[in-house]
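To close the chapter, one final illustration. This time we ask the reader to focus less on the individual chains and more on the assembly as a whole: which components sit near each other, and how the overall shape emerges from the parts.
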Amino acid sequence: MATYNGVNYNKYMAGQVLDQGLWGGKVQVAYDKFTYTGSSASGDKVYLCKLPKNARVLPISIVKTDKAVTLSVGIDGDATKFLNSGAVNGAVTFSKATGDQLGADVPILVSIGSAASTPTIEMWVFYTQAG
Amino acid sequence: MAEYKGINLTANESGTVLDPGVWGGKVQLMQDKATLGAIAVDNIACLGWLPKNARILPNSFIKFGAMGGTGDGEINPALLKIGTVGDDDKFASNVNAKTAGTFQFTSVGNSKVGEAGPIVIKITAAGSGTNVPVEAWIFYVQAG
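The assembled structure is written out below.
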């Protein structure tokens, strides 16, 4: 039997003042939506929302489609930062989001991998901001 | 292959000041719970209170205990609606509550609730359960 402490619990117990992005920070949300007027195509890029450079994107964030579309979610330079490519039909959370800071003001990139007729893509990005 | 931008990113880049309800708004939580003594048709549970400009977020959820059913082997499950005072199936209808479960608000868009008041859970088909807990965890932002 052993006891293990989280990295932040350890710091807290050691008296460190933790970054609010990790410890009691206020959660904010950004929402955006794009509706195709025609068909989506593999290789399309859809940019949604825009987050401040110190934002920490939370894994409870959601991308939602109204029909089956293969897509990944990330940022320019790391197209699968938040969600690996896969079929989405409904609401899916950002399973790969780790809460690290973005480092620059950036939009969220949805990379399309399949054709669908007039799909709508919605996104709710939950984030905290840190110093 | 083409590049597209969302409606709000487009508005932001054109200099429009966006409603905090869609662009960086603070997430708020409304949590409430009740116990339904009996699962009878038209029994309701009113949970919490939302302002009329609340935009419910899709990770909100309602937990409910097992409400059972009626008939042999409880073949007819207890059913419920989830909505508001003015629109009792605004969020869901015919939710099967025979066994304990969770209803997630993944079907919401980003529109405002439109009326101040509680989330209303209404029984539409009876069940055998007694003293069944229902609990709402509603995450929302407010807009102008």
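Chain B has a mean pLDDT of 94. Residues 35-142 of chain B form one domain. With these observations in hand, you are ready for the problems at the end of the chapter.
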